[in-house]
């Protein structure tokens, strides 16, 4: 009996604590998604009110008239995400390992390494765009005359480079936090058992820092799949660098096709969801595990 | 969750740089090792320096461009220094009409978002980790799903939503700072909940039981005991929400359409983008100025940041 009242009290308190978050999320996140979905079943006529067209907008994007645009955007988004997150994770791990060492001025190094991440994405995109101009400093330093925005691969790589520059510090920070939770005596024990430095890295550091890497990769992938500012500002989607987000915004805001744009944003959302689902499966770690343990 | 290994000497620091090999420090291989390992240390230091240079160069270039006199900029000068630094560009930025007003607005919005979103996220994280109820796992997944929403794609539905809200509560509608506050608050909450979750979970159940025995109600426990214990996590969250809010161009440009006096700082920088020729000196000076408050905020809370994230990634 006592257990029952206690649980009822817990439920009531939990509801109370969740109310502010639920109100904010349903208002600002859920409602716009639902209205975009509702709008996606209507067409985009000029000069009369929209009529219901069922799944026509979706069909148009997936295998209709606009399928090339859509699938190109899917391909680009995947390419940018996979390549940049892979580089970021490696580089972030490296940076975290360096920052974890004890050296003088470590605090300053940590703060300054994080600066690129603290810079507004739009500002860093503009800055890279300027540095990557044909007569810009990048070409001057490299001694090349590449027109970075002028053809497909230089444009793609410049987006990836700017993205990695901006977000590797973020990954590094998350991994560094994970490194600090590893008790030092494990290394001492491993060393006493005669494990080589490489062995200690692969069998102590990596497994113990894996949860941190998983969290970092998961959140980075979710962000990278929705990449907007960098391609928008650096290339404007030219030279086959359009991502799903820039495609949606161009359609819904630029061409004012709200019905078709709604369908595209719903597809984008589903695509991100699918990727996240597969990723969580692939990483093999139960991201929700901590919750159940914590619930005593 | 303390930064307990923070001050550990080189002997136990488990990692080096590029070679990614934990160095055998002096204490674990007492005899021959130290001298032989020296070169590797040097290599690691060089790699660290190299990374730092690559990371820092664009930032250096930004500050340098902000300080260059205009003529030098327009000539496309690529020398890595300037002999005649000038504050002209900074002056142009600060003298933009209403710059002070924009700054105050940005601070107001970012401050309100930091306080409101971390508070909401903290309360939600407590509910989602410490109490048992049927929909808990579902809610947690929903929170993660909210992190998958293509924000830019929702600008138009959000615009109409805010227009409707503004009809009822003007202070939260279009053209008011309130609109930016609620939107940013909602988009900051999901990540903050996920960060705070591990933290709240790390506080042992026995602490709560002890508090209850001393006569504390559940609410008193959350407010007086749990909150101080998760403070590092709160600090980490506040950095994230501060940066995203402070840096936002898109919403500021979309929701504050006609009310000039309610614009935020990024819009001041936008005035230097001109159709014919961008004023790069002004843009770079504005960017430098915009980064300074982020830095200040970062320095204030950074001590807690690393340990704060430690709680988050431990899950």
From TrEMBL, chain A:
Subcellular location: Cell membrane
UniProt entry keywords in alphabetical sequence: Cell membrane, Membrane, Transmembrane, Transmembrane helix, Transport
Coiled coil segments of this chain: none
Organism: Marinactinospora thermotolerans DSM 45154
GO biological process, one term: transmembrane transport
Signal peptide: none
UniProt record similarity statement: Belongs to the binding-protein-dependent transport system permease family.
SUPFAM superfamilies in UniProt: MetI-like
ABC transmembrane type-1 domain residues: 74-279
Entries under InterPro entries matching the protein: MetI-like (IPR000515), MetI-like_sf (IPR035906)
The name this protein goes by in its record: Carbohydrate ABC transporter membrane protein 1, CUT1 family (TC 3.A.1.1.-)
Membrane-spanning segments: 12-34, 78-99, 111-131, 157-179, 200-222, 260-283
Gene3D superfamilies registered for this protein in UniProt: MetI-like
Membrane topology of this protein: Multi-pass membrane protein
Annotated Gene Ontology cellular component terms: plasma membrane
Automatic annotation (TrEMBL), chain B:
Family matches, as Gene3D superfamilies: MetI-like (1.10.3720.10)
Annotated membrane topology: Multi-pass membrane protein
Region annotation (Disordered) ranges: 1-33
InterPro entries: BP-dep_ABC_trans_perm, MetI-like, MetI-like_sf
UniProt GO BP: transmembrane transport
Membrane among keywords: yes
Record-stated family: Belongs to the binding-protein-dependent transport system permease family.
Name of this chain's protein: Carbohydrate ABC transporter membrane protein 2, CUT1 family (TC 3.A.1.1.-)
Organism, scientific name: Marinactinospora thermotolerans DSM 45154
């Amino acid at each position: 009996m006592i257990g029952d009242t206690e649980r009822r009290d817990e439920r009531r308190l939990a509801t109370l604590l969740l109310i502010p978050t639920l109100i904010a999320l349903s208002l600002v996140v859920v409602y716009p998604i639902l209205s975009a979905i509702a709008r996606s079943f209507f067409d985009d006529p000029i000069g009369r009110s929209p009529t219901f067209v069922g799944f026509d907008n979706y069909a148009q994007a997936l295998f209709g008239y606009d399928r090339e645009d859509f699938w190109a955007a899917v391909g680009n988004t995947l390419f940018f995400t996979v390549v940049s997150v892979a580089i970021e994770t490696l580089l972030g791990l490296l940076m975290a390992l360096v920052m974890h060492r004890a050296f003088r001025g470590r605090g300053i190094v940590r703060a300054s390494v994080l600066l690129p991440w603290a810079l507004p994405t739009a500002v860093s995109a503009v800055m890279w765009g300027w540095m990557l101009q044909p007569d810009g400093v990048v070409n001057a330093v490299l001694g090349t005359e590449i027109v970075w925005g002028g053809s497909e691969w230089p444009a793609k790589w410049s987006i990836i480079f700017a993205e990695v520059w901006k977000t590797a510090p973020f990954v590094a920070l998350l991994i560094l936090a994970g490194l600090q939770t590893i008790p030092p005596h494990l290394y001492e024990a491993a060393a006493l058992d005669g494990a080589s430095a490489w062995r200690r890295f692969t069998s102590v550091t990596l497994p113990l820092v894996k949860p941190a890497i998983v969290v970092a990769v998961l959140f980075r992938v979710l962000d990278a799949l929705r990449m907007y500012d960098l391609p928008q500002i650096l290339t404007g989607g030219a030279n086959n660098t359009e991502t799903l987000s820039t495609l949606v915004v161009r359609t819904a805001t630029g061409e004012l096709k709200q019905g078709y744009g709604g369908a595209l944003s719903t597809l984008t959302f589903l695509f991100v969801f699918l990727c996240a689902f597969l990723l969580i499966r692939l990483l093999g770690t139960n991201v929700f595990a901590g919750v159940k343990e914590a619930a005593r | 969750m303390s930064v307990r290994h923070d001050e550990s000497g080189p002997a136990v620091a488990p990692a080096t740089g590029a070679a990614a090999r934990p160095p055998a420090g002096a204490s674990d291989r007492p005899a021959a090792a130290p001298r032989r390992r020296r070169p590797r240390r040097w290599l690691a230091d060089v790699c660290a320096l190299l990374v730092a240079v690559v990371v820092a160069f664009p930032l250096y270039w930004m500050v340098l461009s902000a300080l260059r006199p205009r003529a030098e900029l327009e000539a496309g000068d690529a020398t890595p220094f300037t002999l005649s630094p000038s504050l002209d560009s900074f002056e142009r930025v600060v003298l933009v009409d209403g710059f002070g007003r924009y700054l105050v607005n940005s601070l107001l919005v970012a401050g309100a978002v930091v306080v409101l979103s971390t508070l909401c996220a903290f309360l939600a994280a407590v509910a989602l980790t410490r109490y048992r109820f049927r929909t808990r796992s579902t809610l947690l997944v929903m929170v993660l799903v909210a992190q998958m929403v293509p924000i830019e794609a929702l600008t138009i539905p959000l615009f109409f939503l805010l227009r409707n809200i503004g009809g009822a509560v003007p202070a939260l509608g279009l053209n008011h700072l309130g609109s930016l506050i609620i939107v940013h608050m909602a988009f900051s909450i999901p990540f903050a909940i996920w960060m705070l979750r591990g933290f709240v979970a790390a506080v042992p159940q026995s602490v709560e039981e002890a508090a209850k025995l001393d006569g504390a109600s559940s609410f008193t426990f959350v407010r007086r005991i749990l909150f101080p214990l998760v403070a590092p996590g709160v600090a980490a969250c506040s950095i994230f929400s501060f940066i995203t809010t402070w840096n936002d161009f898109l919403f500021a440009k979309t929701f504050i359409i006609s009310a000039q006096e309610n614009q935020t700082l990024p819009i001041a920088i936008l005035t230097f983008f001109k159709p014919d020729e961008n004023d790069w000196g002004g843009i770079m000076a504005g960017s430098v100025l915009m980064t300074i408050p982020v830095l200040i905020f970062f320095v204030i809370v950074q001590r807690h940041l690393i340990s704060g994230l430690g709680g988050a990634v431990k899950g």
